Amino acid sequence: MPLLIRNGELVTADARGRADIYVADETITRIGGDLEAPPGTEVIDAAGKYVFPGFIDPHVHIYLPFMATFAKDTHETASIAALVGGTTTYIEMCCPSRTDDALAAYELWKGKAEGKSACDYTFHMAVSKYTDETEGQLREIVRDGISSFKIFLAYKNFFGVDDGEMYQALALARKLGVIVTAHCENAELVAQLQQELLRAGRTGPEWHEASRPETVEAEGTHHFATFLENTGATGYVVHLSCEGALKAALAAKERGVRMHVEAVIPHLMLNKTYAERPGVEGMKHVMSPPLRARRNQGVLWNALNAGLIDTVGTDHCPFDTGQKLLGREAFTQIPNGIPGIEERVNLLYTYGVKRGKLDLHRFVDAASTRAAKLFGLFPRKGTIAVGGDADLVVFDPEYRGTISALGQHVNNDYNGFEGMPIEGRAAVVTVRGKVQVRAGEFVGERGRGQLLKREPSHL
Ligand SMILES: [Zn+2]
Q1: Phi and psi at residue 200, to the nearest 5°
Q2: Which member of 21, 82, 143, 240 has the greatest number of CB atoms within 10 A?
Q3: pTM of the full predicted structure?
């Protein structure tokens, strides 16, 4: 059914104004004043509301075998949570371990999403080792429409690559025009500091941050930058959490390294005192890089507003209370992750835009447009334009609510942002012209999501 969204205030990364949007066959076909609605058109009145391009979460984990267990979401639960929170596309990390075959893992991850996700999706392909077979396999995956890789400098012996493997992955990425996302913490330092803390009887979640301090992330970021510099590849630092790492990234950019930066919503909203709460409450707030000292948060918000941090993702990765308790005896056994796919946009709007820390256009850019541009989805996604996919968010700035695990759509028994007030939320959300969320509730078609094929764009 054709769709007309009337009277809304359209806001993109670089423009703003009142207009109607007409959608036919999944695509925006007209934008203008007082558009006509032919018979059979569904009309949505967006008076008093913003209309944003569908938001893109560039960093989520849905299917994930990790630390002796599995993350809790399926593509059904995660995509509904995403849509209710205004996210219409996510990029999942396809994360084989070093013992897995890359191509088999890619097929496995694809199979978990196909016909299950209610929103559109694609993958970053993790390169977790580099053997004689790797180049051929990665070329095949890129031909299948995956134009971004992921490497881990952390998680030694599991996902992590050594320097030789990192060099080879980056050299291939440079040749193919693929962007490489990277988790930047020095694996050896983390391993040594963990053992030293455990030997001293420091086993609680409050010691997690001490085992991966800011300097370890700053070193990892500088290390990655040096490898980008010497291969000419384009990189993207995921979940940058602190001032030291930001300085390393900005110094690299300044000398011409092609490096982009992502922040994630937990580091913007939460500080390390959350992980210092006693018992399982602390464990719920363990992720890597860890939640940091509060002073880093102002630094991240400022860099985000200035566009020095490009994007805001989530690193969504839900483990429930029982799974977190696997780390009862030692913080090194706590499954890492804080879910946030449902809350990202509302938190960014409330605590960024509404508090005067984030320009409204920069908000759209960071949560949608910039990710679309970096990862080969623009202009099909990431803006409101004739010819683009009709992924639209009618956002109600008058809504008032409170985040709670009760009634959340993510498959988990707690919420890391419990009790935080929200000012504004997605009221209506469309995916390629179909209304998937109405009045903040999922009303759409399960399994509608498509795997987005992406061309390499970093040649
Ligand atoms: Zn991640």
Answers
A1: -85, 5
A2: 82
A3: 0.98
